[in-house]
Write a structure and sequence with these properties.
Strands 2, 3, 4, 5, 6, 9 and 10 form a 7-stranded parallel β-sheet that branches. By secondary structure, this protein is α/β, with parallel strands linked by helices. Helix 8 runs parallel beside helix 9. The longest helix has 19 residues, at 117-135. It starts with a helix and ends in an 8-residue tail after the last strand. 30% of the residues lie in helices and 20% in strands.
Length: 343
Amino acid sequence: MGCVRKTRLLLVAFVLFGIQCAFAGSAAIAEHYLGADVGFSQSTDATLSTGFYYGEACAFKYNIEATAYDSQIHAFADSQVYETGRVEFGIYLITQGDLRTIFETPDGDPTPDLTDPDTQAENYARHVKWFYGHYGYIPAAVSYQGGGASPSQTGQLFHYALGGRTSNSANHVITNDPGNWSADTASGITKYRDLSIRFDDDPSSEYVNATKDEVMSKLMGVLDSAISSNGWCFDFSHWHTNPKRANSSKLYDFYKEVRAKINSKTERIVTVGVGTHLQQAWYRSIASASLSDNGSSLNLAVTYTVPSWMQESWTFDGFTSQPTDCFIIPASIKVDTTGTSLE
């Protein structure tokens, strides 16, 4: 990684250290963003007008930063939605029928074949280039289409993002699948808890016959599990179609219960986007912090050991990027001055 990028990562790591609280006489990369004890994310996989503004309003009401995965297929979310800051955006990677639109395939030509590694790479590159042009940054998180799309369709996500999800349904739980990318899987460093459960969203939901109380009980149980283990509750639902297509429960009700539970706990729970949580998780993996005292001031040092795959650049149609570009937030660092000259 070039000197400029390494310096940028170091500088942003310093930004927040003065407001962190933590270990006695020491410094360490925080487990969660802003030094929280627990993380909570809630996401959807499209930006459609059927409920997107409703979802944004619910997020404002209960102070929850939601996540939306977007692509050039949907592209409903305009700059007004992005600029409000209540929704963090990631990429919705198309791996099925809409590929012809992504690749601008002429009528009569065959549909792009994602079992071909070169076509896979171009699919990612087209999505990332579009996203950067639409939102102005490289996203850390991906949701890929297909309800369990095969590795032959998804390829090596880590060349383009820090983590992602797809849906695999079993016993009313939609698990986020962070595997099949490389040996450096996000799951080993993020402390997922039950990964995800699907909030009741539309007539195709597994919860179509469930009561509102059953849905909420299951969801709150997943959140309780994350709180008890200082983990990350990562929820997914089609909130872009709620409440228009909801059955027994509404996003508003869900957020209301989530906020009530958060407010009742002594643990500090941060509710930010999936990409933000992933960035902090990877900071824990690639960075370390230390504190030294010269008698009148403290020096905070942050050291990065960046894996080779994070430094691999790719280029498509004049656009160049690499995984380190996904880091756009400061690393949160816990610092305790107990026993130092600045105690």
